[in-house]
Amino acid sequence: MLNEVAENQNLQEYSALELKLRCNSWGKTVITHQYQTHPMRISRPFRLDRDNHNRAYIYLRNNSPGLFAQDNLNISLSLGKNSQFYLTEQSATKVHPMTKGSTAKVNYNWNIAQQGIVEFVPEPLILYQDSALQQTTKIEIHPTASLFWSDIILPGRLARGECYQFRYYDHYLEVCSDLGELWFKERMYLKGQDNQFCHNELFASFPVLGNAIIIIP
Question: How confident is residue 8, by pLDDT bands cut at 50, 70 and 90?
Answer without folding.
Answer: very low
